[in-house]
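Support case: user asked for a sample of complex input and structure output to validate their parser. Sending the pair below.
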Amino acid sequence: MLDQIVFYFFATLAVISAVLVVTRRNVVQSAIFLITALLATAGIFLQLHAEFLFIVQVILYAGGIMVLFVFVIMLINMDVSLHQVQFNRQWWLGLLLALVLGAQLTVAIAVGRSGLPLGEPAPATALEPSTQLVGRVLFSEYMLPFEIASILLLVAMIGAVVMAKKKV
Amino acid sequence: MQTLINFVISIWVQLVCALVIVAVLPLVAGYIVLMERKVMADMQARLGPMRVGPHGLLQPIADAVKLLLKEDIIPDEADKGIFWIAPLISVTAGMLAMSALAIGPWFQIADLNVGLLFVVGIGALGIFGIVLGGWSSNSHYSLLGALRSAAQLVSYETAAGLAIVGALLLAGTLSTREIIETQEDYGVWFVFAAPVGFFIYVVASIAETNRAPFDLPEAESELVAGYMTEYSGFRWALYFLAEYTNMVVVASIATTLFLGGWLRPFAGTTAFNFLDGFPSLLMLVVAGYCFYRAPKQPVKIQKMFLVVVAGLFILVAAIFAAPLMAPAGSLVASAKPGLHGAFWFLLKVGLYLYLFMWLRFTFPRYRFDQLMRLGWQFLIPLSIVNVMGIGLALVLHRQLGWSHWTAFPLTTILTLVVAGMLASAGAKKDKEHAVVGEEA
Amino acid sequence: MMIPTSHYLFLSLGLFTIGVIGVVTRRNVIIILMSIELMLNAVNINLVAFSRLVGSAEGHVFAIFVITDAAAEAAVGLGIIIAFFRNRETLLGDEMDLLKW
């Protein structure tokens, strides 16, 4: 029962925050609601017993990426954008297409529920503690993607620094 | 309804701990401020607050009342919602981080599998409180102070995290309770196996909490008060509470990871069991000092207050001594781990905080570019080398069978050599910059 | 009583659709970037839910890589936005339509 309360609470919070991210006029308010949505997602990870991913989400996404976003928002003067039109001219087409996509996927999940055991809850067999499991798998089977990810981060760091410098 | 009641009954210990933290921590933070003022006075050869209550012991109460009654000024152009919520974010992050820490073997709200990372990560969410507070004040000083403070926090967070990783290699687990139990099994605190890591963590934690000598963002002569400039009255008190809560959290992490948590010095050896009497002895010494000072107070009510305080300390000493005197196996004797563990933990946290204050009143302030250079070009490379060094020591000890008396000191010396190289390279660059006259 | 996996999939779908709406509808480039982050989060929920269903750690590992890539992409994207803002003083996607002036 606690599981359900926690899941529905975080799910509602995530969806409401996401809607508010997309519709706010003030960019700082959008950023704050995105932080809330990310923390709600972290809560859902915790409810799925993925503790390591929960804390990685909090530290990296909410505590790292969002700090970057907030920094950039504060360094760029956004007052002009408060008075401009928020939605572009073809917003109705975009909305329609997104809803069609959503409907397609909803039907796919609803129909396919019986194929894979999607309608039933996950098996109760507990995985070993999340950190040990992820660490073991990450450093043995997925060592190559791990190294590639580190090179990717290096490239991104260099790229971001070069891009944001005043004189190249 | 019945399930709700059952649920609450099943977690009543955690609820009590949470209540104690939320209710007692502001009071404790107030008394840490008093401790800081008294220590500052001691190091400056004066007495500190002495008027409010005997020896200034009621000063925090007076301060709290004053802050609650002050006028609440909100700048005109400020974004009201964000202005309102920013101090709350800082305080919430600080207090939430306390929930995974084990203050004694019985006082822990949540023994998470990733406990230590949780504390570090949630503590890092306090950055938002600072940045949003500085931005919403709609003032240049606040915004600059906030951005500088956030940049400093982010830089030293990496160094602190890597220092923690070094010690976690020894611990093998992220759960705060199990780290202390591992130190009990090994018989040695991790500060002796990874002293360089402890040093890095001390320096990084001073920068993390914006304390001197890294307190440029909130120094009075620099940016008025940085991100706290436009906050007055209780909102400012919340920021202050958040800062001191962060100090307690950071000290608790260092105590858990490096200083053995709730373990008595030499917890394993029975030859040192006389150290179990130290808590009671300390309380009796303090009570004796209060009795000694009581006749010298000018006013009768202060005399009585000091006698009452002395009586309280004697009571606490008796509470600490009771489990030792009671026959083994009885209910009173089984309270020993909880009580004594909490005492040792709080003593270590208090000593760490005293170290913070000692450093504050000894060193001049770092300039911002010096601060960033220290973080990025000295501490982060050193912490990476520290992690490699501890890994090397573990390989030497576990795979190759070297004794830990040779493996760990060897890698510590190697890390110190690298530290020396980094420091001399940094000093050379400092001299170059001073000669040429430009900043980095 | 545990939560059926399809509930997680519907949640992930909802977040993904809201992210798509944000990307194709808003003009402000920073909000478009934030909507992309929402989409990546939705994918992460999906991955972790399936990982729990199957009982292996691959989903968790993939989710970690997704978070890493999101960080790299956000950093580079914001760098581009800052560079563009310095030149053209605009943050609206509609007005970023000329390569060289």
